[in-house]
């Protein structure tokens, strides 16, 4: 783990959405203890009116779908994003009813709403506050003494991109999605445990099944169709220079952070900056990931599958985004930007605006980009015949047959 010694080892930082990893581990720890079952419907823990699911009879929303962000929920409202007054979880949840936009389990779509529901499930099942549960299941077993979900002494303060204009402390509507504060040393304990497959100081804190839940997404139809990257329980994977990293990024006002893991080699990095400069963070991350992987052997890559033209041609056409994080009204009205998939000599080409991405076939409906070592894009049809594309390029549906939740995808 790379640690910058220019700050005191116990100096805390804000880790933003990296909190989602700790939130997922809290739920997974409860599952290991038999206090939760991840496939249990959420409605058994949360009162009516907090969310609405019109597909509940056949597709109830489950705890696992909350953790993998496959719940079908959009992100917070403008009012919730602008809120800087700490409120009890119950009050925040009841501020409005949150309708699911598509059947839960269809697709991953990043949102800060599901962790709020996860926290409510945890409080209901334990009888304790969410922070108490996180301390008992994650922070205390790992010895993360500086960690907490509220303002802590010693925070260096966050700044705008100029590095001198301070930003006020932002109280997240749902602390479970982004409120974790902790020192680099304490966060290194968390990541080292992940690299050691759930073990810490000679004790197994999380079961093999829980660790697999982090590294292997399984609740979306894309994952079931063979997608080998994606968002697991509070962690996602990506490809850099032919190597697959796992980790998470974070954003809290004036802070940017990220961690990345290469489990097979036992390597990882953790970085936080207290200035709102995402481009700077991306530059540092690229250098770190190159440094950590440059001496590793190149992963073996399966050769593209030989697929008949008929099998590929049926996947071509115009595609509309099948998920929306913001601007739900415009998305439902068919105003989002479309993409095209066309046949090329050795596979398919995905075209969105001026960007073109070659897709090499790896099996029925399974594809990778030329430099990817695993399946990173999949095509599949749902029970109603709508053709979906999921993976590193986003979530799309072929406009030849719009799904019921998105009747105007052809516009």
The CATH first-level class of the largest domain comes to Alpha Beta
Share of residues in helices: 25-40%
Poorly predicted regions are: 1-5
Briefly note the CATH topology name of the largest domain.
Beta-lactamase
Inertia-based shape? globular
What does the average pLDDT come to?
Answer: 92
CATH architecture of the largest domain: 3-Layer(aba) Sandwich
Q: In order across it, which strands form the biggest sheet?
A: 13-14-15-16-17-18-19-20
| Strand content range | 15-25%
- What is the count of β-strands? 20
Tell me the name of the CATH homologous superfamily of the largest domain. Answer: DD-peptidase/beta-lactamase superfamily
Outline the biggest β-sheet: 8 strands, antiparallel, barrel
End-to-end Cα distance: 49 Å
Question: What is the number of domains?
Answer: 2
**Total of helices:** 13
- Class derived from helix and strand content: alpha+beta
Overview of this protein structure:
This protein is α+β, with helices and mostly antiparallel strands and about 400 residues long. It has two domains: about 10-295, DD-peptidase/beta-lactamase superfamily (Beta-lactamase, 3-Layer(aba) Sandwich); about 310-400. The chain is about 25% helix and about 20% strand. The chain contains 13 helices and 20 strands. Helix 1 (about 20-30) packs parallel to helix 5 (about 115-125) and helix 1 packs across helix 6. The longest helix is centred in the last third of the chain and has 16 residues, at about 280-295. The chain starts with 11 loop residues before the first strand and ends in a 13-residue tail after the last strand.
